[in-house]
Amino acid sequence: MKIMSIISCKIFEDEIIHLVEHDEELSDVLILKNESSGEIIRKFGEICCPCRELSLKNVEAFRFLKDEKYVDGEGLILVLNILDIAGMGKMRKQLKMKVYDAILQMSFLSDGILLFYGLCGNLFKDLEEDFRYLKCPLTLLRDPEGKIVDDCICAALGGKRAFMELIKEFRGERVFMLTPMWAANWEKMVVANGFARDMENLDESKLVFRAARYSRVAKINTGLNYQQNFESRVREFAAFYDLEITELEIDQALFEKCYRELKHSLIASV
């Protein structure tokens, strides 16, 4: 029995649900219980996709996973660790600490770890090197050229080259891009990205958007429908910043590729 872990920012929870929903080879899906796990558990329930909560504060949970790891035969257990959205300054340092702590924790139980993170402003540029001593494979999201993606939008679009080609199509117009989860959490994301000091001062971000000359918001249709309020939240965002709305269609190729590569490497080693 192999154990594959995904450590992910909450912003990617829909992409993870898509992968799990369409993977018939998984023996079990476990979600570590924390302050950010409630929403993804609710969404799994809505599509009747079985999963179980697990608290690693419980010694018995550690013992269970260790026992499962050494069971003979085929099978793959997926363990999900969903972390909250973090922001600039001190919050960025806290994010790095949380991710590094999660890696150390999961490495004791996992045969492979996939991080649903990109460089995040170069915060994680040395991550793979920092954990080169781990016995289990560890990788961040990478584009078709093998390069670590810059951020969540870059990942959604398929990598840096796809992102740059899209920017060229806008012919100099400044376009702000929203995925379903970005839109669902846009107030929190605006603060996390340093456009405003806090949620109570969101009006500050209007000045930033105006100074940056944003004129349009791109609604990135990912093909996923787990977040029901995407349309209304994009309209709300556009109205708040006085932006026009344009729509983009994308697929899940990058996420499917990264997931498939690690998964197949683990299954092949059985």
Automatic annotation (TrEMBL):
This is DUF1638 domain-containing protein. It comes from the Archaea. InterPro entries: DUF1638. Pfam families: DUF1638 (PF07796). Residues 90-259 form the DUF1638 domain.
